[in-house]
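Working notes for the structural subgroup meeting. M.R. asked for a predicted model of this chain before we commit to crystallization trials. I am recording the input and output together here so anyone reviewing the notebook later can reproduce the run.

Input as submitted:
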Amino acid sequence: DFCKLDKIECFAYSTDNPTITIEVRRGSRVKRVSYYLGCKSGLGSQLKSLAETVDAAANVQQWRLPRWRS
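Returned structure, recorded in token form:
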């Protein structure tokens, strides 16, 4: 349950990875979860999937620059 996430324990780290931050607001209540993708905890794929779902719903692709192809 997203609202019950407080601290995600990592059992191993790798470096130079992005961080996913998901923030949900309902009235004056705010819940924010940040997850470093270099953290090996088992929740990474679930939170990444949630972030991709949120991005699709918000149509964030419209603000991204196209990737250069080599």
